[in-house]
């Protein structure tokens, strides 16, 4: 099985009342097409070219909670989920 890299938006929840809620959003698709990459370089290039749009999307997904984007990263999905290959 080959590697699959995905984009995660890591958020900072600004209201302490939300401290136990999920603070990471996997970006699953763009314009109805699955969003995953075969290499970390392809994934990083996508973030470099589309970081503003990714951040805006992530903030909108967390609305109406007050949030900030801490980072947008690429991760190997199998390793992040602890899947053995």
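Sequence proposed for the structure above (85 residues):
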């Amino acid at each position: 099985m080959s590697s699959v890299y995905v984009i995660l938006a890591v958020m900072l929840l600004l209201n302490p009342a939300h401290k136990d809620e999920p603070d990471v959003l996997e970006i699953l698709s763009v314009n109805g097409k699955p969003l995953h990459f075969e290499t970390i370089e392809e994934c990083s290039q996508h973030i470099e070219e589309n970081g503003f749009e990714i951040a805006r999307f992530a903030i909108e997904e967390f609305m109406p909670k007050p949030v900030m984007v801490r980072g947008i990263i690429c991760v190997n999905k199998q390793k992040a989920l602890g899947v053995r290959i």
